[in-house]
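Slide 14.
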Amino acid sequence: MDSCLGKDIMQIIKNEMASFEADSNVERSFSAA
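Slide 15: predicted structure.
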């Protein structure tokens, strides 16, 4: 159960990091334009 919960948390963290990086990339391209 703990390992399953840990996998879910890791997946959520990965998704959050990916969306955060995408957001900062969008902001960078806007400020560069």
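Speaker note: Residues 2-32 form the longest helix (31 residues).
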